[in-house]
Amino acid sequence: MANFGDTSTGIANFSNIIDTVNQIAEVLELEYAVMGNLVTRREIPRGQDRVRVPYQTARFEAQDYTDGDEIPAGQAVGINTLDLTCNELQITFRITPRGLRQSAVDLAAMAGDMKAKAQAEALEVRLLELTDDTGTVDLGLSNGTDANLAHIREMRRLMRNISHLNGGPGRPPIYCVVNPIMEEDLLADLGVVAASTGSTNTQARVIPAALEPLISISPSLDDAYFGEILRIPIFVSGYIGTTIGSVTTPDNGAVFAKKCLILGVAADWDTKGFEEAEWPGTIVRSMTDYGARLGPFPQQCIQFDATIA
Predict the structure, then answer these.
(1) In terms of C-beta density within 10 A (0-12 exposed, 13-18 middle, 19 or more buried), how is residue 281 classed?
(2) Helices (H), 74-103
(3) What pLDDT sits at residue 236?
(4) Is 9 part of a structural domain of the chain?
């Protein structure tokens, strides 16, 4: 293997630096996506194609008690489960002979960076897709109005007014994700203009203490953070309304409880490089199991009814 301190030596076999590529991609993946930091993450054990998520179905009630009373029949621990099934995803790319003449450290950095972006896109789009109207609550407004403060206010009310049988009021952490155009609409509605520091129209960027640990490890999350409106942290994702592979996200944002969206990921990507006679160079294929779904109480996801065009 080439010396990583030698910037002029190429490598004969890409498989020699696959471990380094994977390490770089793993570190960078969450820097290129917002949603992966805002949902419940579950590991998929090796040899399994699903994650089973248990949840409580029965409702407990506090009742007046008299000596000798039996436990009411309805007061029981009722358990149900959701299966988060997974699909195989692949990232396949080619490296030309000229690419293999690059220094090992540079080639590993470039391949790892692009692999991280591809993984982040898959992650972001599959999670955003879950925020569509299927099984979720929407504002009930006609689609065609710009995003505004009234939308956030109504979403907050809907999230606080969910019945116990549907999971009860959404518990923090609760997040909102919007498109960059919706961000502009919100800024306009809040009266934010180009003004000097100290103006009443300047939007203060205060990061809640609960978000500081997430933002400290994710430059993407830090950059995407819009601010807090009515105690709801708002983030901006450019992948709203985007198609990646076979998955298309809805054309608007949403407010959701973290536990409402579940992401299942394999422990790592299995990456292999191999030669083919038809291609002068190396073909690299990386595969994993990925899955995402709404949690047991989908009403804790509330979609915007707003235009982003």
Answers:
(1) middle
(2) 97-100
(3) 92
(4) no
